[in-house]
Design goal:
By secondary structure, the chain is mostly helical. The protein has helices at residues 7-33, 36-63, 75-90; strands spanning 2-5, 65-68. It has one domain. The protein is 78% helix and 9% strand. The longest helix has 28 residues, at 36-63.
């Protein structure tokens, strides 16, 4: 299989990662200055910002990859597909 990347999406993914990291670190500073219930709120915001940032960075990074594959429609590929289905059914 041959694949290539859309570098604009890779750059966007990198920017999202940097922004999420900065946001989480900034909220971390507020977490240490706060007390009790407010501290838990800042901590939850920090965790949410980092989690959403990591998720979106990976999602966009995966969208950046385009895979070019050859589709086989011959008798041999149908036989392989049928055999793999039988093996899956048999366990």
């Amino acid at each position: 299989m041959i694949g290539y990347y859309d570098y604009r999406l890779v750059a966007l993914s990198l920017l999202i990662a940097v922004f999420a990291s900065y946001t989480a670190l900034d909220l971390g500073g507020r977490t240490t200055a706060a007390s009790d219930r407010v501290r838990l709120t800042w901590l939850a915001g920090r965790a949410t910002a980092m989690g959403v940032g990591i998720w979106s960075m990976h999602y966009i990074g995966m969208l950046a990859l385009f895979v070019v594959s050859r589709k086989e429609n011959g008798l041999a590929s149908r036989g392989r597909a049928f055999t793999s289905r039988l093996r899956g059914i048999q366990g």
